[in-house]
Amino acid sequence: MFGRLSVYKSSMTATGLARFVLVLGASLSWPASQAVTPGTASPRCPSEFGAEPRTPAEHRRRAEWVPYQRQLPLYEARLPGKPDRQLVMPVSGVRVRQVRDTFARPRGGGRLHEGQDIFAPRNTPVYSAAAGFVWRISETPLGGKWVFTVGAGGRRYYYAHLERFAAGLREGQRVTTSTLLGYVGTTGNARDTPAHLHFEVNEGSQARCDYRAIDPLPLLVDRPPKPSDR
Ligand SMILES: [Zn+2]
């Protein structure tokens, strides 16, 4: 116990309490049994890729991440070093106080929910919550149609279950908090749920053994209405 406490104490530097909560959150979120990927330091490190691949399709999807992981430092070098303190509500017309907290809630298979589900009518516009770049656009059985962006401090933002992508959206493009990414939907494993955006924020990396999903809700601020909406 003393050892654990001293770990917490030593992390009480500039980032203080937030760091403490993150450490705690990470230990809540990922079973120690998870995950070895190419280039992984330790099998005890939390996985940024979910469950271990079993089928050939899952192995292929895992392998597809490798070039994207290599691109991350290039984006990071072009962005501020400190992560954003505020994120702008990504779903048009939803107030932050309307979001029912679903972070770290139990999900099937012993996993915890690693993001916030933001419910809105199908086809509601989804904007980037932070400035940065579009990192990856794809479609998978769990997330359905999804977009990952990378922002300041190398943080990744995951927007999943999109009904469709914004026209012309492409990987590598600059985004601001006014950039349309797509539209709320039910793709992937959300097909039997009311339409919602699964919004997730990831920090650190598996290679450094400090990967974690953080709760976006405390960081979210309301999106100002567009002049045309008033
Ligand atoms: Zn979700």
The total strand number stands at 11
Note the main sheet.
9 strands, antiparallel
Order of helices and strands: HHHEEEEEEEEEEE
β content, as a range? 15-25%
- What share of the residues lie within helices? 10-25%
- Radius of gyration, taken over Cα atoms and rounded to an integer in Å: 17 Å
The secondary-structure class comes to alpha+beta
Question: Total helix count?
Answer: 3
Protein name: Metalloendopeptidase-like membrane protein
GO molecular function: metalloendopeptidase activity
Signal peptide: 1-35
Domain M23ase beta-sheet core: 112-206
Polypeptide structure, described:
- The chain is an alpha+beta fold and 230 residues long.
- The protein has a single domain (31-229), classed as Glucose Permease (Domain IIA) (Distorted Sandwich).
- The chain is built from three helices and eleven strands; from the N terminus they run αααβββββββββββ.
- Strands 2, 3, 4, 5, 6, 7, 8, 9 and 10 form a nine-stranded antiparallel β-sheet that branches. It has a two-stranded parallel sheet with strand order 1-11.
- The longest helix has 22 residues, at 56-77.
- 30% of the residues are buried.
- Residues 113, 115, 117, 198 line the site of zinc ion.
